[in-house]
Each structure stands twice: as structure tokens, then as C-alpha cells.
Design goal:
six-stranded mixed β-sheet; 167 residues; disordered N terminus; alpha+beta; single chain; 3 helices
Length: 167
């Protein structure tokens, strides 16, 4: 008797097709079972809505000996933190957490530590946008850099978001 091959393939929840590119998506927990084209469209739309439009982080070359500089905002020059999101896009966050009462809901993020597969050893940190359950006013959240950026457009946008917040 030889080993049997698993021939069960998933079906995309969006376009209802099967194939080798259909798989579970999302880093923190199962978000959906989608094929590559549907996942890409869904993740891109979600990234635009949540403001996770930073370019992917470049992996440094291990043989490169030039000094590494942390990322900075291209508009204001401030230091930012660069994190992967749950849906494999990237977001710039502020370098310090703030109380939730000081950050408009649109800009609130949390950092989630992920363990290795079948292990408790942390291997990655991903940014997860806070939705659904509102944090207490004193709970620390990581604001998107756009909420604390010093450019006039960003300041005006953040002021409008805070004014629209019913809290």
C-alpha cells in the first residue's frame, strides 16, 4: 500500500471555483477561503478602506554592510513603524501607542504576536485594525501614522475624523 494523496480542493467563497490557488487566507485567523485573484481584489479593497497602503518592507541582503535606517514618512520625515497586516498588506504606524480616546476610530490598530505553526514561539507581529468591539478610552492603541502626521492635509483629515467621532 502506498501513501494516498489528498485530492480534496477547496472552493472559492467569492467566485465558486476550485483549483490549486484556493486556500484559507488571513494571518491571525481564518478570514476566508479564496482563490488568488479574489483574495488580491478583496485585500486591496480592504487596504484602501483601512489606510494600509504602505509599500512592502524590503528584506535586507545579509551580505549588505551599509547601515540600516528605520523607515520615515515621505511627507513629514517622522519615524514610523512598518507592519504587515492580517491580509498581507503593509501599514505605517506611529512609533508610540496612545490612549484610544486620543485616536479617531478609523486610525486605531493593535499589534498581534503570532506563534509558529504548532509552537508557542513568537515568529511575527502583525497589525490588526480595531473594529467591532470599541476599546475603553484608556486602552492603548497604535495609531496609523496618518493620524499623527504633521502635514497640513493629514492634520485636517485627523481633525475631521475626531470631530465626526460620536464619543
Amino acid at each position: 500500500m502506498g501513501a494516498t494523496e489528498d485530492t480534496i480542493q477547496g472552493v472559492c467563497q467569492s467566485c465558486h471555483t476550485g483549483g490549486p490557488t484556493v486556500r484559507e487566507r488571513g494571518r491571525v485567523s481564518l478570514m476566508a477561503v479564496l482563490c488568488d485573484p479574489c483574495w488580491s481584489a478583496y485585500a486591496n479593497q480592504l487596504a484602501i478602506e483601512e489606510g494600509a497602503t504602505a509599500p512592502p518592507q524590503v528584506d535586507p541582503d545579509p551580505d549588505d554592510v551599509t547601515p540600516y535606517e528605520p523607515p520615515t514618512c515621505s511627507d513629514c520625515g517622522a519615524a514610523v513603524k512598518h507592519y504587515r497586516t492580517n491580509y498581507d498588506r503593509w501599514v505605517y504606524l506611529a512609533v508610540e501607542d496612545l490612549p484610544a480616546k486620543d485616536v479617531a476610530p478609523r486610525y486605531r490598530w493593535r499589534l498581534q504576536t503570532l506563534g509558529g505553526r504548532h509552537s508557542r514561539v513568537p515568529v511575527e507581529i502583525v497589525a490588526v485594525r480595531i473594529r467591532g468591539i470599541e476599546p475603553l478610552p484608556s486602552d492603548p492603541v497604535w495609531p496609523a501614522h496618518r493620524a499623527v502626521c504633521l502635514t497640513p492635509e493629514a492634520v485636517q483629515e485627523a481633525e475631521q475624523e475626531r470631530a465626526a467621532d460620536p464619543e
